[in-house]
What we know:
The complex is a heterodimer of chains A (about 200) and B (about 120). With about 200 residues, chain A is of the alpha+beta class. Chain A has helices spanning about 5-15, 50, 70-80, 115-125, 145-150, 160-180, 190, and strands at about 20-30, 35-40, 85-90, 95-105, 130-135, 140-145. Helix content of chain A is about 35%, strand content about 25%. In chain A, helix 1 (about 5-15) runs antiparallel to helix 3, helix 1 (about 5-15) runs parallel beside helix 4 and helix 4 runs antiparallel to helix 6. Helices cover about 40% and strands about 20% of the residues of chain B. In chain B, strand 3 (about 80-85) and strand 4 (about 90) form a beta hairpin.
Amino acid sequence: MRELxxxxxxxxxxxxxxxxxGIVIRVKESAAADRLQITxxxxxxxxxxxxxxxxxxxxxxxxxxxxxxxGLSLLAAAARRCEGDIxxxxxxxxxxxxxxxxxxxxxxxxxLGDVAATLGTLIMGNPQVDFVYIHRLDDKEFxxxxxxLKRELEGVDLSSPAVVSQLMDLIRRSxxxxxxxxxxxxxxxxxxxxxxx
Amino acid sequence: MAKLTIExxxxxxxxxTKATALRQxxxxxxxxxxxxxxxxxxxxxxxxxxxxxxMAEADRQDIRVVxxxxxxxxxxxxxxxxxxxxxxPIVYQHMDPNRMRQVFRRHVLLGEVQTDFALAKI
Lengths: 197, 122
């Protein structure tokens, strides 16, 4: 994939296919440690221990319709070529957590890319799912919580194109400020620690 | 400073309440963007974003957009399925933002199936 945000989109779609209605995406960048970590946690149907051991094998899939599954194997390959790795914690009925780590400055690391487009696509295409996106860069943090947005925008369809378009603009501006070392970006829910639920 | 503030949310609500107030009832058109690994790698996300822009401009309340997984035709991704009420669903193949805009304006809004991009009827 050309962007890490496309991997995020792919892993989240896997979770939604597994019946999740709550997804937490964390991107943690540390300039000092030169690491970038992406974690996607869902509350879907989970994966058996036997399957978890072989998830980065492209010829292992939980699907029964065919015998290849490329999503996590591509993410694992992307992480490993950047001095990183992938870790999957899952259990049947308890959801799945996928964590990929990368050397942040590695020449082969794909850019994070258009995170706003990924979140916009997810929000518009899956109105029944709640998303929490937490992006931490050293000591600065940006959080988007659609549960909070639904409460604040009561009566407004969050998945409507007009709303998603405005949300994407706000996310782009916020992440641009985060990357440029702007002042602290922290919404109410992240400050209260509720976004980690 | 750009961040999601309560003021931002209020502004979004004011600007969009009118536009979304009528989004009730049955959809006349359902558009499915297939978002499996193959679709995403082939460019499904820009297709979805182009669709979003077209929908925002058209401001139609009877059109629903959903994402789904791979439909098994990986070599023809990105695939988009358009289902108009009382007509056969059409699967479009090798979509890109321009094709998506054309399909939206001609098929979804005017009912003209774009046979140049069509893969199959379902």
